[in-house]
Design goal:
The structure is a single chain. The protein has ten helices and seven strands. By secondary structure, the protein is an alpha+beta fold. The strands form two sheets. Strands 2-4-5-7-6 form a five-stranded mixed beta sheet. Helix 2 crosses helix 3 and helix 8 packs parallel to helix 9. The chain is elongated, with a radius of gyration of 26 Å.
Length: 355
């Protein structure tokens, strides 16, 4: 019987399915998918078959189970492409292993197998999609709430500092002036990020030739003020004027500015943040190095998730690094982070050099 065969050969089916997933070119497999995803998919598929009568098509309860499974997969971080392909890989693994072991299934059993596959994929994807829409709506409400909260706080600080300075009881060069400067810089950062989000969401970005030396000079002007307000040293390495990239200038500016802002927030006062640019083959690397003290092991990728915050400074929306990644992706590049335990991190934007 088909169900008995799957249960008796579970370990070998997982091995065969993992081999198929590893050999897949797209979507690229992940460690989580290989280690826990494949056994989860096989367990779900086995459950679907278990509630199916040998001479009937899948019962209505299959839809609810697969739907719930799709929701669980989304929570675990799987994509719709992984859901579809992994179910298919498991079904192929069952068929191929049956041939190897000279196990013959009846036509009704193959019919049930295919019906379960179709139903599982359809319902899992439906559940996945519905939950994703709910998550997007909830995230949008949270994002807008956080944005309004941060704008209000920065504006209140700026207004308070202005009122104190207006009374002429303190000078502009003191702590109150520094508070006003930080608040205005925070407002500028929030607005810049929001504009970048709008451009990314609307697809209204256009790549043009950007001379990197001129671009870095523009970024340095605003970054130097932010660094000074936080009592930090900003070092910017000279850039060859011959180097240029094809990029949306505003999105690239947002990506680099967000990396610098993140570095400023996490580097202790009197520390150093470095901005460097160098060629590597036919690519250019823009590096931002901070002195945050490093990251816990295995936490690098989590930095790029929306609403993720780290360090003692909890201000901001936690969207900066997420927007940086999206902005770099939109410009045809990649972003990486190198952890230097006990010292800091180096964030690198890699872009193709323009001809």
């Amino acid at each position: 019987m088909l169900l008995d065969f799957i249960r008796e050969n579970r370990a070998e089916l997982i091995r065969v399915a993992r081999e198929k997933v590893r050999g897949r070119s797209a979507p690229r497999p992940t460690d989580e998918e290989l280690e826990t995803g494949i056994p989860l998919f096989l367990s779900q598929f086995t459950d679907l078959l278990a509630v199916t009568k040998a001479s009937a098509t899948p019962s209505p309860t299959l839809g609810a189970g697969a739907n719930a499974h799709g929701v669980d997969l989304l929570r675990r971080g799987f994509t719709i492409a992984q859901v579809v392909h992994d179910y298919g890989d498991i079904c192929e693994a069952i068929t191929e292993l049956a041939i190897v072991k000279n196990k013959q299934f009846s036509t009704p059993e193959f019919h049930i197998l295919n019906q379960c596959l179709d139903n599982a994929i359809a319902e899992a994807v439906t559940g996945y999609s519905r939950q994703r829409e709910r998550n997007i709506s909830a995230a949008e409400v949270e994002r807008l709430g956080c944005l309004a909260h941060e704008l209000r706080d920065q504006l209140s600080n700026a207004a308070l500092a202005f009122q104190i300075l207006k009374g002429e009881s303190v000078g502009i060069g003191g702590s109150t002036g520094a508070l006003l400067e930080r608040s205005l810089a925070g407002l500028r950062s929030l607005i810049d990020r929001s504009m970048a989000e709008v451009r990314l969401a609307s697809g209204q970005h256009k790549r043009t030739r950007v001379v990197l030396a001129e671009f870095i000079e523009e970024v340095e002007i605003a970054a130097a003020l932010d660094a000074k307000a936080r009592s930090l040293e900003l070092t910017v390495a000279p850039v060859d004027y011959e180097i240029a990239v094809q990029a949306d200038r505003q999105l690239l500016g947002s990506a680099v500015s967000n990396l610098l802002h993140n570095a400023f927030k996490l580097t202790p006062a009197h520390g150093r943040v470095s901005l460097r640019t160098r060629k590597s083959g036919d690519h250019v690397l823009i590096e931002v190095e901070d002195e945050c003290g490093g990251l816990p092991r295995g936490k690098a990728e989590e930095l790029f998730r929306p609403f993720d915050r780290r360090g003692a400074d909890r201000t901001g929306l936690g969207l900066g690094l997420s927007i940086s990644r999206k902005s770099v992706d939109a410009n045809g590049g990649e972003i990486h982070v190198e952890n230097k335990p006990g010292k800091g991190c180096i964030f690198t934007i890699e872009l193709p050099i323009a001809a």
